[in-house]
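User:
I would dearly like some help making sense of a protein record. Take your time, and here it is.
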Amino acid sequence: MADFTVGDDHFRLDGKPVRLLSGALHYFRVHEAQWDHRLSMLRAMGLNCVETYVPWNLHEPRPGRFRDVAALGRFLDAAQRAGLWAIVRPGPYICAEWENGGLPAWVTGRFGRRVRTRDEEYLGAVERWFTALLPQVVQRQIGRGGPVIMVQAENEYGSYGTDQVYLRRVAGMLRERGVTVPLFTSDGPEDHMLTGGSVPGLLATANFGSGAREAFEVLRRHQPKGPLMCMEFWCGWFEHWGAEPVVHDPERAADSLREILECGASVNIYMAHGGTNFAGWAGANRSGPLQDKDFLPTVTSYDYDAPIDEYGRPTEKFRQFRKVLAEYADGPLPELPPEPAGLAAPVRAELTDWAPLTAVLEALGDEESATTGVPPTFEELGVDRGLVRYQVAVPGPRRPYTLGLTGLRDRAVVYVDGVRQGVLSEENGTLDEPVAGPAEVELWVESLGRVNYGRRLGEPKGITGGVLHERQFLHGVRARGLRLEAFEEPDALVGVVFGSVTGAGRTGLFRGEFEVAGVAGTGHAGLELPGWTRGFVWVNGFCLGRYWSAGPQRTLYVPGPVLREGANEVWVLELEDAGTPYAELGPGVPVRTGTPGDVQV
């Protein structure tokens, strides 16, 4: 057993000064069978600690319905096997470029702007979540022989609000449920952020990508004593669909890391290994100073331009960081584990079967809603990830008028009398051609990810305004959800009626097979869909995530443990325009390229 404390100048282990050299690795973004390899890569880079968030929405998708909360405990056990301490950041809000910042859609749908405040109903939901989760942490604290040395209270709250009552309540919930290790907060190195997000008695840490000396000077104004720590050293950045790739020069990143350590500070490299936003869990952002402008959905890859890339391979940034960290190690660094292997040769998966979206909805969809005056939102329908089909009539006779949507979030494929008329978005919410009445309108709307940061956190999805014909709202709306979660059920496609891909429509569920041999458990493949537009892919029932021709991401990561020796099955759910009837699998893509620059803030 050991005692980890926050001293006046250093972290201390059994009274002796220690420096935390940590790296972020989210267990929910890495296939469990690959945890050991990725953690051993952290050790080989020179780290002594791993940090992870915990996404509430992943583990409590419905009120009181908890799913595999023990995954966190298994990850912490893996960290201990790797010889690493662990920092846990359980939220309840985590940001993390994750759907809704980790808050369940049912929470934001129910409590709205009351989330992340002292509201008693919201705090009651947080209490129930912590009661279910925290035993995984408490029994693995360092004082009980486990790896957990620190736990965060909330996350970057100073970027959001000033409710000190709420922050103290969250810290109190952690203590009341048995967390005895030091608690901390983390915020940007700005006066308003640190005053809004810090809690008296809890260690305050700072998040930044460069300028360590200036950042720590600001932190010291608010916390004259205690160890300095950069809780998020942004060595890379995430990417958005339709935007340019983002990279951070390895040498400049290594210089920034060295500056942190020269200040005598501890560090958590964010991300050490980013992983993947499997199963449509990627979040989204808003542009503008108030995060209230253009909608920016995050790509499936969370490679993050991290030193260990999405495929588990060391990059030039890894090598540069290892050199820096070796100077602060107690002894020689461990050797690197064997590099994960990709497929030996490219494989083509022929897509031979097809079912229209309507057939998929009939087999896997939720019950159709009652006819309502206005379109129900995704939250009102209980849909977190997936799509909703809305149906409404244009009365007639009447001459052609413009048909459009208000409050569309995020993208709709529109049919009039069964004929496709266009694809609408929040920025372009009106069909090009006018519509006459009477007519039947069908709109297939997909959420591209809920905002994870800023004041638009928790905004509802679907048609949040209405369907307009000229200036007139169309009432009498029917809606039916198709949740991605439905595809996770055993034998999910048993009730789907497939036909031949010959004569397939532009959208629908496509199915095929491919053969592989010699796939190692820690290996990988990369999957591409030439000419396809937007949708989701599953391999052997495992959802790889969203693909979209908008780029910059072209290849989806396939974890080796998902693949089987011999026959494998692939499903493709295309929502706009299908391409050639096959998927291509290869050994994986090289690390991403782009114009190196400073990490964005």
